[in-house]
Amino acid sequence: MTGVARDPVPGLYGRDGSRKYLNRMERQRVLAAMQGLDPGRALFALTLAWTGARVSEVLALTPSSFQIESGIVAINTLKRRRPVVREVPIPPALMRALDAHFALARTQQRQNEAQQRLWPWNRVTAWRLIRLVMRRSGIAGRQACPRGLRHAFGVGGLQAGVPLNLVQRWLGHARMSTTAIYADACGPEEAAMAERFWRSTESLPPTGSGARRRHAP
After folding, report:
1. Interhelix angle for 39-51 vs 24-34, to 10°?
2. Which of the 8 DSSP states describes residue 3?
3. What are the extents of the domains in the chain?
4. What span, in angstroms and rounded, lies between the C-alpha atoms of 29 and 23?
5. Residues 176-200: pLDDT tens digits?
6. Is 32 helix (H, G, I), strand (E, B) or coil?
7. How far, in Å, CA of 138 to CA of 144, rounded?
């Protein structure tokens, strides 16, 4: 598709071996750092993190994008030849905060205001905000950007047991194979299996000295 930027190296790691996504602990630190921003900027960053959306998609949100009682935000999906709107649920606390700060319920009743963007910024301002949050969280590298948040959403969703086709829909992927790359991350269940394996060998003596002492006269 012309005019659409593509990642030349699909997957969770770049050609140089650099990780593209925030792991679980990094994402928790970033979410905590977002809470320390002023309300308007915090709500933008949290909406980005909890929808898995692209920066431009969140910047395009208006009061009419939100179904307040249902806890759903309707996102215009980019990178599609035809307009596609996807519905993504967000945490109740985030919806309440958005409603309180932007007066969503009241603004939705005013036709001239219901279609105005909540965050009248450009992409550069939004990127700088997320990079600031990453620095405050002690995160550097390829994952310290909005795309790292989007990848973390995909990885976290699958590791939490959300079906692949649902994560695909929330992220607005045209192909399930694109979403499936997030299943390659080592999740809590896999780590727990490895820990059980490690424990199963802890009672074995070290090779060499232990065996010799056991057979010594």
Report:
1. 150
2. T
3. 24-191
4. 10
5. 999 999 998 887 768 878 888 778 8
6. helix
7. 9
